[in-house]
Every structure is written in C-alpha cells, then in structure tokens.
Amino acid sequence: MSTEDEDLWRVLREVGDMPYGAGQIAAMEQLLRRVDAGDDRELAFVTRMQATTAYVYGGEPAKSFVTFSWCLAEFDRDPQPYHQRYAHQLLWHVKYMVTGLLRFPEVPLDRTYAVLDDMERRYREGGHSLQAVHKHRFLVADHLGDADAAAHWYRLWQTTPRDELSDCAGCDPTTQVQYLADTGRHAEAVALAEPVLAGRLSCTEQPQAILTALLVPYLRTDRGDEARDAHREAYRRLRGNLSDLWDIGNHVEFCTLTGNDARALEIVERHLDWLDRAPSPAAAMHFAAAAAAALRRAGELTVYRRAAGDRPAGEITASALAAELTGTATALAARFDARNGTSHQSEWVARRLAVEPTGTHLPLSASLRRRPVRTATAGPAAGAGCAPAPGAGADRAPARGAGVAATAPVPADAGADELLDFAEERLRRHDREAFRAALAAWDDRFGGGDLPAGTAAHRLELRAAELGDEDAPTTVEAHRAAIAAYRELGDEVRAQVVAGRLGVLLAMADESADEGLELVRASADVLDRRGDDRQRAAGLDRVALAFMHRGRWVEALDALDRVPAEAGGDPWLAARIALHRAHVLEQLDREADARAAAHRARDLGRELGLGDVVAAACLAYARTADDPAEAVAACDEALGVAPAEALLPVRVARARALMTAGRAADAVDDFAEAVTLCVERGAEGDAFLRWELANAYWVAGRLGEAAEVAEEAVLGLDRLGAQAEADRCRHLLAGVYEGLGEIDPALALLEQLAENLDGPDNLPHRAQVLEEAGGILYDADRDALAAGRFAAAATAYRQADLPLDELRARRRQAYAEFWAGDEAAALRTVELLDTVAAGLAGRPDEPPPVTYELALAAEVGARVLTVEGREAEAYDRLVGVPTRLRSIEAFGEAAQVEAFIGELLLRLDRPAEAERLLREVLGGLPAGSRPVQSTAWLLARALDLLDRPAEAAALRDEYDLDHEH
After folding, report:
1. Which CATH number fits domain 702-906: 3.90.180.10, 1.10.10.10, 1.20.120.1760, 1.25.40.10?
2. Long-range Cβ pairs for the range 323-330 (8 Å, 24+)
3. What is the pLDDT of residues 222-253, one digit of tens each?
4. The model scores a pTM over 0.85
C-alpha cells in the first residue's frame, strides 16, 4: 500500500469519527474526489459505503441513492474478497433505499417496488429471514393508505422470525407504536413500548424515535408526565439533526395538541430555515403542515426567519407564514398523490393542518411556569434592565402594592378647588387610585362649566400628572399649557414646579435632554429663592432625577446632598428622595451608603404604607447587600408588597440573590416566573432571562432542562442581534451538552463559536473554545481530530501572545497525535513545544503554572522520543522534573513521571536503579489508585531482570498481576 493510500485510509477513519451532518458530508465528498483520482478499488468501495450512511443520517438521503447504486453494481459486477466483509452492510443499506425512495415524489413507485423485489431476492439467496422485507412492504402500503395491505404485511412482519438484518430492538417497536397509534390503539402502543424503554437502546435513532412515537399514545392514555418527559428527552436529542426534521414536526404538533402555543412557535422558528434544505420532500411536507397549524394559532405575532437563498433574514407575521406553509404542505401532498394514484397524503396533510388543542393544558416548557397570557402593554425588556427605573417620573407616584394603606374616599361635597387640592394631596401621598378617582369625579361635576383661571390652570397641571410618561408628546403639551396658564396668572412658583416636571420628562429623551436639564435647573433656582422647604426639596429631587436619566450620577448626588432636612417636612417626598439616593449611590459603587439610603427608604415606606417604595427599597438593598441571605430576605419582603407591574424585577433580583447564595435549585423557580412575566408582557428581553435560567438549571444539575432553555435563549438572543450574549450562551450550552454526553452537538456549537470569534480582538476566547473542543474529542478517543483543534488553539494563543497557554495547547496536541499513532506529527509538535518552552524557562521567580506546564511538556516529549527508540534522550529530558513538580505540590504528577523514568531505566538496561525508584514510587501511591498496578508491574519486571523471580512472583500475587510477562 502506498503512502498516499495509507493517508487516505487514515482520513476515512477520521471522517467516520465526525458527527453526522453537513460537515461530515463535505469532508466525505472531498475524500471521494481524492480516492477516485487513485486506483484503490477497495478504498473506493468502502468510502462509498461509508458515504451512504453519512448521507442518510446527515440529512441528504437523495445522494445515498448514487453511492448505494455504485456499490451494489460493483458488488455484483466483479466480486472481490473485500466485498464479502461488507455484504451484510450492503443488504442493510437496501432498507435505507426503500424508505428513502418513498419520500421523493419524483421517483416512480415502480422503482420502489423493484428495489423491494430485489431486496427479497437477495435476502432469500443469502438464507436470511424475510422479516425486514415484510416490514418494508408494510411501510409502502401504509404510505399509500392501503389499510388492508398494510394490515396484511404488518401481520407477516410480526410473525416472521427476526434475524441479524432485522431493524434494532428499538426501531422495530417504534414503527409498531406508530402503526398502533395511527389505528387508535394507544394503550397497546404504550404496553408494547414499556419493555423496550426499560432495556438498553444504543442505536443512532433511539430512544428519541420511540419516545416521539409515544407522544400521542401517552397523551391519549392520560400519562401526562410520561408525555412531557418523552417530549423533552426526545426533542433534545433531535433538535440538532437535519435528518430528523420529520420527527421534529411531530413535536411541533404535540405542542399544539397540548396547548403549548408559545413552545410550538419557538420550535417552528428554530427549525424554519431547515425547510430550505429539508432532507426530503416528505419531511418538508410533514414539518410544514405541523408548523402551519401552530402558526395559525399565533395570529399576528411576528416570526423571525433566517436568510436563505435570495430571501433576506427578516420578520413575517405568523398568519402569513401559516398560509405560506399550508401551500407548501398541500402542494407536496398533491405531488405524492399524483405519483401514488391515491388521495391519502392530501387527506393526511389536511388532518395535520386542522390540529387544535385537545383539552387540559399540559405544561411542557422548562422556562415557563404557566401558559402565558400576553397583555396589551409590553413591559421592559429583561436585557434592558429588570431593575426598577431610577424614578417614577416627575413627581408622579408609582402604583401602590399589596399590604399598603387603604385608598382615601373621594369627598362627596367638595368644591372644584377643594377636589383638585384633594387630588394633588393623594398624588403626593402615592395614592394614585384616589388621585384618578378624584379627577374623574371633578370632570364629572365641574368639567363642563366656566371656571376661574386659577382653577383651570390647576386642572391643566394635574392633567399633565395624570398622563404621566405613557404618551410623551401629549404629556409635554399638557405641561406647556399648564406653565403658560400659571404665568398668565402671574404665579411663577407654580409655573416653575410644572416646568421642573417637564424638564424631567424631556431629560428622558436624547433629542430633548439639553432642554430638560436647563428647565429643571432653572426651576430649582427659582424655587430655592421663592419656594418653601418642601418645594425646594422637590425641585432638587427633580434635578437629581433628570441627571439620573442621563447617567450623570455625581451631579445627581450633588443635587440630593442639597435637599433640605426631612424634605421640608414631607415624609412621602423624603421616602422618594431616599430611594433615589440609594440608586445613585449604588451606581457610584458606594454600596454601604446605598444600603443605608435603601434602609431609610424602606423604613419610611413601611411607616407610610407605600408598598411600591418598600419594594423598590428592598430591591436596592438586595443589590448592594454583602450577605446573600439578607438579599434574599429583602426580596421576600418586596414580593409581599410589590404591585403587579413590579413583580418582574423583584423575581429577577430574588433569583440572582439565590444564585449568589448558592441556592440554584431555588433560583430556578424565580427565573422561570420572571420569564413567564416577560412573555406575558410581550418583552423580547425574555431571551436574557432564559440565559440566566439555563445557567441556574445547569448549576442545579438539571442538565436536560438547562439544554432546552439555553437553546431557546440562543434563538432569542440571535433574533435580538445580541451577538456577544448569544455566543456566551452558546458556550454555556456546549458545556451542558458535554455534561449530557452529547458531544457532537457540543462540538458543533464550539465550532460555530470559533467562527464567530474569528477576529484579532477575540483571539484568546477563540483559542479557549478550540482547546475545549480538542479536550472533548480527546476524551472521546477521537485523537486525530483532537490534535487538529489543539493545534488551531495553540496558533491562536501564539497570535494573542499567550505563551503559557500555547505551551499547554501544544502539549495536548502532541499527546493527541501520540495516541492517534501519528508519531511523525507528534515529533514535529514536540519540536514546536521545545521552542515555546525555551522562551518560558529560566525566568527568576518562575510561577507555579509555568513550572507545571514545563514539566508536563518534558514528559510528553520524552514519551514521543521513547516511541522513536530514543530512550536515552527521553531520560535526559526528565532529569529533575519530579523534584520541580513536588516543589509546587503536584505530587500525583511527580509520581507519574517517576514511574515513567523507571520504565525508561528498564529500557536502558538499568534494572537496579529502576527497582530503587519504583519501590519508592509504589510506596508513596495511595492504595487502590490507578497507577498502583502499572507501577507494580514495572517493579516486577525489574526484579525479573535482576534474576529475583520469587520476589517478582510474590509482587504479582500481591497486586493481582498476570504472571505472563
């Protein structure tokens, strides 16, 4: 075999280790081109055999028809000894062809029957059972809607003995469960599946396929918990595989059936672009039908669609997309029916399009605590700040929370001015309910008559306060009208009070900020000269509030420092000022002072029965508390008094406090409630909260739910254009996947991250991601691929001028190449390793991490040299290494190196030295540790070489070693 052919065989093994998908297919096709340029017939055959599997499971089954046909023709035309090694796999691939051909309406049905007949002939000639043949005849009949034929072939399939060509112990029952469910025999389906799920399923398609088939049977037999668990487990395994688009459609339909409209919409949105590269028309038809039914229920909500072909990325209403996908599904069904000569597929699609919830809501989402009911008014985006706003507006009282003083009744016999005074007093006391009621009563009693100018001006002032900042242009105009009215009366003090409120309002917007700041400062100056202490306090509070809106915290604090004592005798104003002060001090990182201000605001709020102030003060205290337990307690109090609109920031603050306190399991509930509140308010920022919820699930050890929620978060963050946050969430998700043992999805995410971080400013993070990918591959014994990732990481570390990190990555690269059997590559890497090590060695006051990496670099170099037969050089590299490792308390690594030195001494025919060293090492190892037996084996070998067989035998008996050596 030529060197070139050896290299191609090695590449084929590496490509086979890649996860199914577009990346593996691209690598396989590149390899095929190289193979076809040579003349190795066996390699060409085996590569196409492997390509057939890659196409089927990678989401491009149409291409498998070509590679399978080539292999079958080659097998029949000129049989070779190597063909027999793949005869079983070739017969297995025939099954792929039957199911695959059915899914393409352009393939004549006669061709499928011809493949089936050929399959039967080959199975008979090979002495195989026809069980798999009967199953595939059943599949064809079922696809055509021929119920009698399907029942006939189903019976033959079930009564014919299985053999090594039968589908696996998970896949055969999956198809049975699907048939029983389609014929309404749900209890039988569940009973059939139970022993299968209790066993060990290791097929590529299991257990996700059988769990998906069980969704409706579980639902119809009142097994809600099993249905929920099956959905979560199966969808998590399916969501990364394009070839599973059909089954993903089943999960969309299940969400619709169970009333989980928001989750159905999220899944549709996540996989929508897959329709543009669907594995087959049948899969596209099924997913489109299920998605259209889900989208129809979403009405005019917007759906984000990624770019594809000539279509740019953008948003589309759910109803418009539902109509589009309905057309896709019905058109594809018509093509199948035209091919089949039946109406079965159109009828089937029509039933899918008409799916509606079946009854009681079954919560499925790990991120929503209940079925969200969207409100008309969108709340604040979570990512834009779930904490309360810096102030409640220009002297505007926030809503009152639970457990507060009762609202005052509107006086029935008050005159026009008295009723306005009453309304203003209630506003000052944060009793917004009575304030609005009083104004409504005033409008009803006095709104239609002629009024004195002062009364009319007062009503204009309160009109501006009544509007708040919900309708900014109208509110600004109302303020200006009130100012003009007071100035016409010659009441400059009242005019300046309103002007200060207008200034705060204008300061909130960038385009009017300068005018706003000028207004509030001018107002405060006038009130300082002509107003009473309360008016001066309120004026300065408005100055502070305007600066707070602009993020000018020092100037805001200066204004608050000049407020008269006790806010001029107004405790309600004092409570608000204390709250503002707490917020400003927090922003200035004066946490102790912020806590004191929050404490005062809370005490005043309690005394006055102001639930909103108490809640906000507790939140401010929680954010600055040193003790996480105190922060949680403050949030608990806030929950008890917060008005409904303030529950979101309270839940977020409590969840974060619980995370800081190490109570991730408890934080999950608060984060999930916060996500639900965000969704109800239509705030897109729920993606940021889902990211935090996913992290809480991860820390709590609930990895399945962490994966589910992190996937939702990535989708939402991508939609918001929050690239950095989306990538950080991807990094979290990759770690979750690794924890679940799902290394291929983890690797795919890390690869995407590495691409996203491809820039000079991101080199350290890119290198870290590449090194993590290498570590996952190395742990999975995919050493050749791991070496490539480590090499890329080392290059990025070098470009980022991080030599210690480069040294570590090169060391890991050398080990990966060593275990991959590529000694030449490992030796080249050791040379690079030595260059990097030379730049780090010999520095005064060498830090422990440098000592550690230099020592391990010496070890890997020695191991590579040993394989090259250069034991003496390897030994020289390790002199002094154990001592250096012990100097930084790396005792386990030191013992490992010493045991290796003992092995080298044996190779160098120095058994006496080896015995002394190995006895010392063995005596220092913890009993039962992994290195004990290998060290004892080396010591026994040294005793043999020293002609002391009795001692060697005793040692082997003591450590239960094989006496053959």
Report:
1. 1.25.40.10
2. 323/292, 325/275, 325/288, 325/289, 325/291, 325/292, 325/295, 326/288, 326/289, 326/292, 326/353, 328/275, 328/284, 328/285, 328/288, 329/285, 329/286, 329/288, 329/289, 329/292, 329/353
3. 999 999 999 988 998 898 899 999 999 999 99
4. no
